[in-house]
């Protein structure tokens, strides 16, 4: 049976994000947190593989204790186990330090539950928006790397092969590679299921496994947290809000509205400026 690890992150709901006008930073207080939706598509694909050919699905996240809520949501959807990696020493991690800790976590998962065949990540997170953590994990664990995947065409557990469609700017690339492999998921990959009632009941009773720095052996302290994060944000700013004026054209019939629109375009020479003539 395949063993699949899904990496998720709890992020601020982008629909509720506000910017502090003084500091130009995100206001996180009072903003609800959700599971990064690209990660949910990765989880959904792992669960589909589980449904079709059988697999054990383990979900992991690095974050503060409240991230347990996100892990419980994944359990409700059908994941088998969930692991929270949390410690103040991990705080302030950029993508380089985050990929290091998650790679160490996957190695520890292998020690506990057996070799990992597939790792799913979202193509990026809603808050960081870099798309670097998944590839960073693949490089650290020497996994075959399949990014921007919009379709998993075939998983052959006996031959240990997987075939996917990568959605690129200039077309679609069909790739077959051997497992173990890491996949970064696009939203086009699937439609995320709703949690079932038994799943929600299990999630309510389930307590995710929590690992701290004390649970990891031979961790290089220079590669975690702020010490292991060379990324420096030199400046942030909010784009100026542009005011665009508009006019509503009214009329009793479509013909009257069309005639008024034609006159407006002619008066301002807009048709030519827009390349319509």
UniProtKB/TrEMBL annotation:
<dbReference type="InterPro" id="IPR033948">
    <property type="entry name" value="ETF_beta_N"/>
</dbReference>
<dbReference type="InterPro" id="IPR014730">
    <property type="entry name" value="ETF_a/b_N"/>
</dbReference>
<feature type="domain" description="Electron transfer flavoprotein alpha/beta-subunit N-terminal">
    <location>
        <begin position="23"/>
        <end position="220"/>
    </location>
</feature>
<dbReference type="InterPro" id="IPR012255">
    <property type="entry name" value="ETF_b"/>
</dbReference>
<dbReference type="GO" id="GO:0009055">
    <property type="term" value="F:electron transfer activity"/>
</dbReference>
<dbReference type="InterPro" id="IPR014729">
    <property type="entry name" value="Rossmann-like_a/b/a_fold"/>
</dbReference>
<protein>
    <recommendedName>
        <fullName>Electron transfer flavoprotein small subunit</fullName>
    </recommendedName>
</protein>
<dbReference type="InterPro" id="IPR000049">
    <property type="entry name" value="ET-Flavoprotein_bsu_CS"/>
</dbReference>
<dbReference type="Pfam" id="PF01012">
    <property type="entry name" value="ETF"/>
</dbReference>
<comment type="similarity">
    <text>Belongs to the ETF beta-subunit/FixA family.</text>
</comment>
